[in-house]
Amino acid sequence: MTVYFIGAGPGAADLITVRGARTLAACRVCLYAGSLVPRELLDACPPDARLVDTAQLDLDQITAELLRAHEEGHDVARLHSGDPAVFSAVAEQMRRLDAAGVPYEVVPGVPAFAAAAASLKRELTVPTVGQTVILTRVANRATAMPEGEDLATLGRSGALIVLHLAAKYVDRVVAELLPHYGADCPAAVVAYASRPDELIIRGTLDEIAGKTKEAGVLRTAVIMVGRTLGAEQFRDSHLYSPERERHVC
């Protein structure tokens, strides 16, 4: 028996990977975050699969479900929104499985920031403008940020910053980034990326907070701040340059 941590994608049911869909269809047990994972994905589960909504479960209860499936000899699809690599809380689950000797695999998915960039029709790394993307969040009543990873420190890089779980704190985000990025820096908020109710908010750093609050966006959104969001005049990349030496085998 194996637990498969599957990235369900950012919201649209058809953005799960082929591998993720095939794995889901083969598992007799499926644990999913009911508030984040599209219900249509559950239609891919076997008709007799046991479905467990983890929205109201704590880590101990989730672990108990995984161990129960292990004892019964059933593979488990553990559906997480986006990609398991970032802000998914899979590390603590894998640690529990390691301690219990339960095998697991990770199936990557489309992360929310990639879906947001697609909706904005923007490449986040643009030649001569910006080649670095920082994925982060802000500290709140939940998990504190490690020392040196506060926005004021990260903002000194001038790199494109993508903030998850931060729409509710957009005023603080703007206040901490303004000294480093300037009032005219392009910014965007994408809520429910890839879903039918997707909402895109564009503006400059000094106006994005007001627009976000006016739209009533509080959660399920990413905030992006950086010059690549508005880049128009930039040098073509070396990748496809006619001056690049190409060898024909």
From TrEMBL:
Superkingdom, natural source: Bacteria
Keywords: Cobalamin biosynthesis, Methyltransferase, S-adenosyl-L-methionine, Transferase
UniProt-listed Enzyme Commission number(s): 2.1.1.133, 2.1.1.271
Tetrapyrrole methylase domain ranges (all copies): 2-209
SUPFAM superfamilies: Tetrapyrrole methylase
Pathway it works in: Cofactor biosynthesis; adenosylcobalamin biosynthesis
Keyword Transferase carried by entry: yes
Record family assignment: Belongs to the precorrin methyltransferase family.
PANTHER family: COBALT-PRECORRIN-4 C(11)-METHYLTRANSFERASE (PTHR45790:SF4), SIROHEME SYNTHASE-RELATED (PTHR45790)
The protein's name: Precorrin-4/cobalt-precorrin-4 C11-methyltransferase
Species of origin: Streptomyces africanus
